[in-house]
Write the structure tokens for this entry.
Amino acid sequence: MMQALEVIVPGPHTTVQDSGRIGYQDIGVPVSGPLDRISFRLANALVGNPPGTPALEMLLRGPTLRVVADSVRLALVGCSAGMEIRSSTSRIIPAGQSARLAKGDVVRIGLLGDSVCAYLAIEGGLDVATVLGSASTYVRGALGGFQGRRLQKGDSLPLKLGAVDTRGEFALHRPLDLALDQSIRVVLGPQVDYFTDDAVATLLSSDYVVSPQADRMGFRLDGPTLAHAKGYNIISDGIVPGSIQVPGSGRPIILMVDNQTTGGYPKIATVISADIPVIGRRRPGRSIRFTAVDVHEAERLRREQETAILDELNSLRVVDPVVPGSSGPA
Amino acid sequence: MNVRFLPAGDAAVVVEFGDHVSRILNDRVLRLNALVRAANPRGLVETVPTFRSLMIHYDPLVTGSANLISAIKNLLDSGGGETKHLKLWRIPACYAATHAPDLAEVAQRTGLGTEEVIRLHSGMRFHVYMLGFVPGYPYMGDLPDALVLPRRVDPRIRVPPGSIAIATGLTAIYPLESPGGWHLIGATPIRLFNPRWPRPALLGPGDAVRFEPITVREFDAIHAATATDAYQVAYETIVA
């Protein structure tokens, strides 16, 4: 029997993502994977999956899906919205808690709220083929995920598992801190010498705003322009997620997970790896302030973050399962 | 020669050999790339060679910038140079007006005439400096001085796959439909990128390329054969 989630409403940009496509950047294939790897990881943990199991990433607004399987277990992390589950009765499961759904149930995730992205993990994962070692969707290259594209109405997403056990559901110890006001830490460089001292001072002292031109490839920022000291063309070199490149307009762009692997604009600074998920959640209109740290501090912050994530994973709460037909938790 | 280590956050470091396009710099980049991959230092994730620098991605939870830079310095000092077996590809190229939307303009702006542009472009042996921009996109050079033009003022929103293009001192082939600001002087019917191939990009950094002129009729025949994977691009092995 076909076991699947049927897409009733796809949401503006819903894709399959796993931990990313590693090892092909030298032939121009970006890593892709989740904008917010922390929420992605927690969502998988809540449904008992190994890290990196393919899940759905949604941007701005979530999908509406129907269960075409005996049962399925889902968890949503990364946003303030919850899962609205419609069966014989309706219930709302908050973000950060798993839920078991039965055949015919419909789950709806509406506007995500403060965050631009969120993750819906499915116990056992989605049964999609890997391309170049990864299930992540790279839409521009039509690679991976579900047919290399974002979801459309009528898609039937195959599931690895056709049924899941009834058990206590997992919940995060406390709601995930989306860090929507936290300053973003950067390491200056690699091409900080292509900018005036004033430009560096401006970057580190101004309020920037995520512009509407923000997608998985990069977030354009509105705010003070940054002056180049020696032109805005460099001979192409490598790019990482978090590279802050400044083209001729002087308006910075933070490159994100679908970034092109190389580029010819100077990069004034790079967002530290711990703060990539923090940037990944910032929706258009939200402000960003930058603070500079050195590489060693950035590495220390990443280790500290990893410890905090492991603490969270080790302190998941078990909540009573919801028996279909009964009323849900308050 | 002066090598600079530039931070690219806490998950990558750039080893920069210089700031211009040159075979000498690129050969050093590709040599270090081979050494780093062979040594596979702890925490290495992947490497990306470019014209004049090598980007080394690492896992900051496994290693640190200081450890990695020290390992790279040792490799730079090791002086080991192994023989590399690379490929000289013979890529069919159709320069007919129907397949070369910018050829007439290039011929006019360079003052060479279309026949001479084709003769120069197909007479060169190009070096693949790097891949980037989109999957499988090869940056190749160097063009003869007479063919050097700046990029188009108005980039195209859609360049068809297979387009052969020139800009500045370089030539390239668009593997996928994508935006593009280079001058389109021909088209190849072959595929440059296929995720189902064991090596998904046909060309690799360090390979060499010659363009072999074909007619529209030959283009169509090769295109049809390519669609069923029945066409094998000719190459010979070269030692670098």
